[in-house]
Amino acid sequence: MSVSEGSDETELSFPEEEDEGPNIGKYIGGRNAAGQRHGRGWAILPNGDQYDGNYRKGRRHGIGLYVFKNGARYYGQYRCGVRCGRGIFIYPDGSVYEGNWRRNLKHGKGRYNYAIGDTYSGDWYKGYRHGVGIYSFKTEKDNCCMTVRLKSTWNSNVRMGPFELYIGNDDKCTILHGLWDNLYPNGPAVFSFDNRYMLLGYFLPGDYKFKVIRSSGDVEEDEYNQEDEIGNEEDQPEEIKPTLWFAQEIAVYDYSLLPQEPVPLPISDSELSVCSITSEVSTLSQEKFSFYGEGEEAEDEGEEFEMECFPCECDYDLSEVETESEPCKIDANPCAIEVLKQPECPEP
């Protein structure tokens, strides 16, 4: 049993943004006393990429729009020169990620809209689906289109542990509760129908051996072996075989009979650094920061680099950036940034 036949659950990988120096590429904007790019500015980099947004001491810091030469773009928060905080990334194939970032990687809560129409919404960690999330896709059966949602625990993009598979809409929905083992459900599982009736049973390997108790009291082993049907060639590579569903009984809906729900994966309490890739989502990245899109992509997954972080750990305040250069927001055209004047507070 797969989540979606023919679906592609992998996120795109993308080249990193080009670094900037005091005199790299063309630049129009503010500078500080040291000649570094500081405040609001617009830069055209040597590779053809463009950046329009806030700087701090020569690095992208605050709100900004980065447009890649091939049309991909990122709009959101920067910190110490890297994507950090809340932002939206639009990829050339139409895939979109909106959510939290940490050191250029998807990290925290976010939603990824795939080009094929599937979506994943949930937890991310170091660029991977990691934690509890919902993967949704549409399927057609008997000329009827329906939405299927998989709520599961993920570990580095791999489904594992408890899951809930929702088939249908809220008015009429069938839910499969079970456990993932590799690529297929395995062990006890329950189908619930509109929260009224339940079908209890097991997902078991195709070569599972059953014990059959005869009326005479004799115990025999009955085996259903898929190898008898597909052939058993020793030189064939070993494959993970689909599990089979064996129904056991029908009962009235009882919540206590359901398997465990998906649970989040633990993260070390020591991972607290704001600028560290291993840190928890900061309060800044948890602020409401809504965009018009949704979706996501994995870029330079696993890339490690050292970054000197000026007063970024404790002394950073977004208002510091916004007072030096006016805040900006995304417009209907993602390439255009509209500058908003700071509203004046009325006299008390």
UniProtKB/TrEMBL annotation:
Domain of life: Eukaryota
Comp. bias intervals (Acidic residues): 1-21
Alphabetical list of InterPro entries matching this protein: MORN
UniProt KW Repeat keyword: yes
Record carries keyword Repeat: yes
Record keywords, A-Z: Repeat
Region annotation Disordered: where it falls in the sequence: 1-34
The protein, known as: Radial spoke head 1 homolog
